[in-house]
Amino acid sequence: MQNSLILKIALCLLLPIPAVAQEDAASPSLKKLHQAIAELAARHYPGSTSYRFQDTIGFEYSTRIYVTRVVSKVVPAPLAPERGPMDDGVWCNVWYRPGDLETEPAYARSEGITKREFFKEHIYYPNDSRNKCHLMVTLRLPLKTTKKQMEFVKELRELLNQFGKHLPAKNE
Length: 172
What we know:
The chain is of the alpha+beta class and 172 residues long. The chain contains 4 helices and 7 strands; from the N terminus they run αααβββββββα. The protein has helices at residues 2-14, 18-26, 31-44, 147-161; strands spanning 49-53, 56-69, 79-98, 112-115, 119-124, 127-128, 133-142. Strands 1, 2, 3, 4, 5, 6 and 7 form a 7-stranded antiparallel beta sheet that branches. Strand 6 (127-128) and strand 7 form a beta hairpin. Residues 5-25 have low confidence and may be disordered.
């Protein structure tokens, strides 16, 4: 009885899970895109850290946790902890999503800049119709942004507008 249980547990751990295999096949490697974003962030924010995990790329420099109102249609909006930049910092999250935004329904939150209590939040949805995918980008900068920070935003947007060239070819 005990040997049977051990065998069943071992089989569960060793056998591949089909749902994970399908998810990996649907998501391209973001390694090249992460590298390009990390290099840009490091050029403008030496000492910044970046990561890549599954369908997400992120980077930050000089950040902290703020307790602030969430962006919501509920009045009053609830409070929640949010990571954001200090005066010289930046925080960014880039989420890869399948689907062409020219044919998919629009997101409830539109692109643009929202002044939050402690920082400005840029929301951006770059689209790649050729690869039928897009990104959901949240970039947070200090309320008072410098010309240097705005130059970084311009360069980041240029890079993200061409994110498809950093994705692997369909046959890779």
